[in-house]
Write a structure and sequence with these properties.
Blueprint: H1 2-22, H2 25-34, E1 51-54, E2 57-62, E3 68-74, E4 79-84, H3 93-108, E5 117-122, H4 127-134, H5 150-155, E6 176-179, E7 182-185, H6 194-206, E8 210-216, E9 220-223, H7 232-245, E10 249-250, H8 262-268, E11 273-278, H9 286-301
Parallel strand pairs: 4-5, 4-8, 8-11, 9-10
Antiparallel strand pairs: 1-2, 2-3, 3-5, 6-7, 9-11
């Protein structure tokens, strides 16, 4: 009997030791690491997955310079509308401001979003370009922070790789692109840049029902197409936004040839999208855009 008791104690001690070895702190740390939801590359220029901060905020990617690209969400409807500012960074800093005004408006007036709608706003798609002109990568800058030197302002149009992001999308993409009469880089391939890749990944994952991208400066609402004609819904979206905002409506942007344009790529993806060009490079024109946005929300709420 005594020998049996001793054997049981030895087995228990051995079992405890085995358990301690199998569940050592090192293994627990590895287990926690394996359960990490978001894995990022050690290089600073590309986030491998979206980081959902909470239901109101998502980091959809990072720029060439490692700056976060943030999306803000309002409403919980199944139909998502996407608004994008700052694709041309500090060169069109007022597009960042109008997008941030939308964020601030919806934070203060959440009931403005219909029940069946979710609104997503990306105020700054090109944070590196914004930083060149305002010394900040977010919409917290003041007008007094904005550089006035023309060469500095123009440099803010491009990302950290000196690529024009609105020449980096997959509709008629060309490496050697044009901006007015100037030669600009469209990147080494369509979606070669982390910023355009981030918004592409987000759009493909969420399939928005309609998209507005702000630019400067011409003063108008422009439909999108990519050799497939302007869709019926894009035509309607153009008309709705233009009528409410009092901007003129156009079937296409034809001031000069563009390649790799974001909204035209969206048309290629059969996603209704419009370019809203502010009248100049300094005025935010919030009241005009607010009216267009509200009309757009009402339009999609009825569908």
């Amino acid at each position: 009997m005594k020998n049996t008791i001793i054997a049981v104690i030895i087995i228990a001690l051995l079992g405890g030791g085995i358990y301690w070895i199998m569940s050592s702190p090192k293994d627990s740390m590895n287990k926690d690491t394996q359960n990490t939801d978001v894995v990022t590359d050690t290089s600073k220029n590309e986030l491998k997955e979206e980081v959902v901060v909470d239901k109101t905020k998502t980091v959809i990617g990072t720029s060439v310079g490692g700056n976060e690209i943030t999306a803000y969400h309002f409403g919980e409807g199944e139909k998502e509308l996407l608004f994008v500012g700052g694709i041309h960074g500090g060169y069109a800093w007022n597009t960042v401001s109008v997008a941030q005004n939308l964020v601030d408006y919806l934070k203060a007036s959440p009931d403005a979003v219909p029940e069946n709608i979710k609104v997503t706003v990306v105020p700054v798609l090109n944070p590196d370009g914004l930083e060149k002109v305002t010394a900040t990568t977010t919409a917290t800058f003041l007008v007094a922070d904005v550089a006035t030197n023309v060469s500095v302002l123009e440099s803010g149009r491009f990302n950290g790789n000196t690529v024009d992001l609105n020449r980096n999308f997959d509709c008629d993409w060309q490496e050697n692109a044009k901006w007015q009469s100037k030669n600009v880089s469209g990147g080494t391939a369509a979606f070669s840049e982390p910023e355009s890749k981030a918004i592409k990944t987000y759009i493909e994952a969420h399939n928005p029902a309609g998209v507005v991208v702000w630019y400067a400066a011409a003063g108008g609402v422009y439909a999108s197409s990519c050799h497939n004609g302007v869709s019926q819904e894009t035509t309607k979206l153009t008309e709705v936004f233009a009528k409410a905002s009092k901007y003129p409506a156009y079937k296409s942007f034809d001031f000069y040839a563009t390649t790799g344009d974001m909204v035209n790529w969206l048309a290629k993806m059969n996603i209704p999208a419009i370019s809203v060009l502010l009248t100049n490079h300094t005025d935010v024109e919030w009241s005009k855009n607010k009216a267009g946005i509200e009309a757009m929300l009402a339009h999609y709420a009825q569908q």
